[in-house]
Design brief:
186 residues, disordered N terminus
């Protein structure tokens, strides 16, 4: 079964680079730094759960088709093995080519649906874009209101290895998004 990659998270690299360049020019003044975890923020949004369900449904459909193709290829291989002693060299070659063609069709389907530029990731990007923009706008409002110079994203491989809780802006961003948490979800 093909497992799609984790959700696309907000990338702040370009923004951070420009802010860092600006900070270098600003000199040695005190900088205010915070961080968020966009994976955590996404997980708190009901829209994200709906998106995940849509993606899972589509992924399941495509995986079913891949399974059907696997079974067809396996059947062709079994037929070939059971009949190859009866086949002429030409018939053997035709059967092998048919199997190879089905394997290639399956690979093309897999790439079309789950490849780097496949339908799964295009759909994921399309569905997540409005939610990501909402989060990014909320982060910007919180950062501006609280005069943060830098806000890093701690999600996935962002490079932030440590951040003191006093710099964690997740709760403020969730409030900005109008999301309230119960005590058990913290």
């Amino acid at each position: 079964m093909v497992r799609p990659a984790t959700p696309i998270t907000l990338s702040l690299a370009a923004v951070l680079l420009s802010m860092l360049c600006g900070a270098a020019e600003a000199g040695a003044q005190q900088q205010k730094i915070g961080y968020v975890d966009t994976d955590y923020l996404l997980a708190q949004m009901s829209e994200y759960e709906s998106i995940q369900q849509q993606l899972q449904s589509r992924s399941s459909q495509w995986n079913s088709e891949l399974q059907r193709m696997d079974e067809e290829i396996e059947q062709l291989k079994e037929d070939y093995e059971s009949k190859k002693v009866l086949y002429t060299d030409e018939q053997k070659e035709q059967a092998k080519q048919k199997i190879q063609s089905k394997v290639e069709q399956r690979q093309q389907y897999l790439e079309q649906k789950f490849g780097a530029e496949g339908e799964y990731f295009q759909l994921q990007k399309e569905l997540l874009k409005p939610v990501q923009e909402t989060i990014f706008e909320a982060i910007n409002r919180v950062a501006a209101r609280q005069s943060f110079d830098f806000v890093f994203d701690r999600a996935q491989n962002s490079g932030l290895l440590f951040g003191g809780e006093e710099f964690n802006l997740n709760e403020e961003v969730l409030q900005e998004l109008g999301i309230t948490l119960n005590e058990s979800s913290n």
